[in-house]
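Example 3.2
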Amino acid sequence: MVSPAIFEQLQAKLDEDGQVRDDLRNIVQLMERQDRTTTSILSRTHSIPQSELGYTLSEAGNSIAKQVGNVGNLSEIASKHPYYKYNGIWTREMQNASFNVVLFTWLKSYFTAGTGNGKLLTIEDVGEALHVPVSLKDQDTFHLTTEEYLHSLITLTEELSRLAVNSVTLGDYQRPLEISRFVKDLHAGFQILNLKNDSLRRRSDSIKYNVKKIEDVVYDLSLRNLIPRGSTLT
């Protein structure tokens, strides 16, 4: 005779697992809402001149600080459970959080440093900004993965290709040149990688199209004599 207690114990385990997933999803929903707020603020950089970016970047920094708080809450709960059992619940939002930090830093360094060079954060820099460990191989605990970071860099190239086009609309003809150099450097870096993650490998193919899109913008500026001859970046 099969004892009903066996199935009662299994149901208890299922209920416990379901509660953990619900708790994690509640935090992820908060992360999603704050991500949309940060993205909305950063999207303004496509439509305002450089002289007006200070307030927008300050507002974005405050929103990212709230994202960091949400990541901390997620880390506190997620670290109590096996990482790879539940990481599918939050991996997209960790990609988004990484992207927002990377884009914010690039914009801030480009527009405030006065050098015309955007700064690329390393994965360690992003982990420090989010207050989480990165690329853990020997610990089954919450962290920012290499794949999540790389996904955020691919999203960065997509956003910068849009910024290159919109910069021309704003009359800023130098910015596409700098963006072209930066994105080409990123593309060269990705070509070094032997990507075994299918999703990451497919998405990385889009970088070359973003490079081409920005090259077309720069080429058009050159044809119209809107940038000095010889300044086209190769």
